[in-house]
Amino acid sequence: MTWIIDAVRNAGPLPAYLIISVLVFAEDAFFIGFILPGETAAVLGGVLASQHHLQLWLVLVLVIAAAIGGDTVGYQIGRRFGSRILEISLLQKRRAGLDRARDLLARKGGSAVFLGRFTAFFRAVMPALAGLSHMPYRRFLAFNIAGGATWGAAVVLAGYFAGSAYLTAAKTFGPTATIALLAALTAAAAAWYVRKRIKTEPPGGPKQHLRPPRIARHGGNT
Fold first, then answer.
1. In terms of residue numbers, what domain contains 173?
2. Apex CA 108: angle with CA 104 and CA 112, to 5°?
3. What's the CA angle centered on 155, arms 151 and 159, to 5 degrees?
4. Is residue 222 one of the residues assigned to a domain?
5. 218 domain-assigned
6. Helices (DSSP H) in the chain: which residue ranges?
7. How far apart are CA 138 and CA 141, in angstroms?
8. Which of 18, 221, 24, 213 is nearest to 134 (CA)?
């Protein structure tokens, strides 16, 4: 992750906008959010905007658009390839996380698309799960836009308003470590929000009529 921070921080404005957009897009579209977190890039974009290296409004627009676009591609991949995508070794190694994501999608339906946006693993897999579960695209898109806009604004503005604190902390810990810490704190706050929303779901809530995705299990029947 440190090389990403260094690359964005040391790049000129145009390369920085491009790197931030690509990372946010790719983590949702290609299931790599738990390896290359776009959240860190979005927070960094906010920090750089606070220092007048980037334009805040443009960082917001690019991050939100990349988040919505990445989720849309992930949904279409899930819709097109179905449960075959869950046989990818990268996801097979994270079966427990997949099971939690499937359970959240089965219980919350479209709301899971919104809530999933706020944790790295769910953010990476939830769009594809929604697609292979045959969630209607219009329903998915509504929650995708709401989640992408809320998440994008929250993480970029978190970096922006923490900009003054960043300058102080960077003198002690260094710029790369400070940005990594800020991104980790932002992710922890988002995870807390999701857990709180999941726990406050009333018992016996409305059932969501989604076709549950099947995950092929090696060495046995599914």
1. 2-199
2. 65
3. 170
4. no
5. no
6. 2-10, 13-29, 38-50, 56-81, 89-92, 95-108, 110-116, 120-132, 137-161, 163-173, 175-199
7. 5
8. 213
Q: Which residues neighbour 189 within 8 Å (Cβ) at sequence distance 6 or greater?
A: none
pLDDT in tens, 111-153: 999 999 988 889 989 999 999 999 999 999 999 999 999 999 9
Gap between the Cα atoms of 100 and 111, Å rounded: 15
Query: How buried is 152 (Cβ within 10 angstroms: 0-12 exposed, 13-18 middle, 19+ buried)?
Result: buried
The owner of tokens 């990268």 is 90
Here the tokens at position 61 are: 């627009």
Could you give the CA distance from residue 50 to residue 59 in angstroms, rounded to a whole number?
11
pTM attached to this predicted model: 0.77
pLDDT in tens, 136-145: 999 999 999 9
The total number of structural domains that make up the chain? 1
